[in-house]
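Appendix C reproduces, verbatim, an entry submitted by the partner laboratory led by Prof. M.T., so that reviewers can inspect both the input and the predicted structure.
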Amino acid sequence: MSRLLNALRSRWVRAGFVVVALAAAVYAIVRDRHQIFPALASLPLANVLLALAVNVVYLLFTMASWRAVLADLGSLLGVSESFEVFFVSQLGKYVPGGVWNVVAASELGKDRAIPRRRSLGAMAVALLVSITAGLVVAVPMILLRGGATPGGTWLWLILPVAIALLTPPVLNRVLAVAMRLLRRDPLEHALTVRGTSIAAGWALLGWVAVGLQTWVLGLGLGLPASASSFVVVAGAYSVAWVVGFVVVIAPAGLGVREVALGALLTGWLPAGSVVVLVLVARVLQTVADFLMAGLAYALSRRTLGRAHDGG
């Protein structure tokens, strides 16, 4: 087991995974090129721009969920400060390993008098809230598709455990054990039902928003405009995101998320259109992440400049 973990941490293994993922994407494009290029050409620019705007809304909801957890743990940041810390730190998810955004948030939070252990706890809890909310959003899709959903059985096994972990009595104990294992002092404040509920509410709104983004792209590629198609697309994206997050050697779920999303949308769109959908969705998400990080960095530089002038 230790050898396996060391291999997964290897820079060469992760770099190799990225190469394989990109090669698979190129192969899929070449294989279905006769369907892909017409589908891409038919995708209206208005749908792309609307999807990008909705993606930004999704990111703002995600930030609000993390901010609610951090406030419940004792550090209430203003909206602008939250914007700076959260969106700059999110670039860390593009580094293989799955933990660098947490590390970045911890370091940025320290500059705002937030103890590292509190930043670490807040980001970890926010991720758990997000994963659980994503699985909840997938439930209607599973019910609609029945046994036709790949991995649907696993969701019914994982979801109750995830919900149980989010209850404050359980979650606070888990955090206490985690802090002891990390040899850090205990958190000063326990999570409350109100705080975790607010965070979960924002996270659910975020999943609905990102599902809407993918649905808008699908409509431009011929997806039927119906409530059932939205339920399937929103649930498929949330499951694909969770799968991509679990595979830690893939930076930001690269490749894994696309394969899972394509498998879940099979039958709703032609193969070429599915490839276009997953690739465009990935590009828009990356653009939105870097756009928000750039704005956050510019805002932080402006704030630091004012502080320096005032000093």
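The CA atoms of residues 67 and 82 lie 7 Å apart. Additional entries are available on request from the coordinating office.
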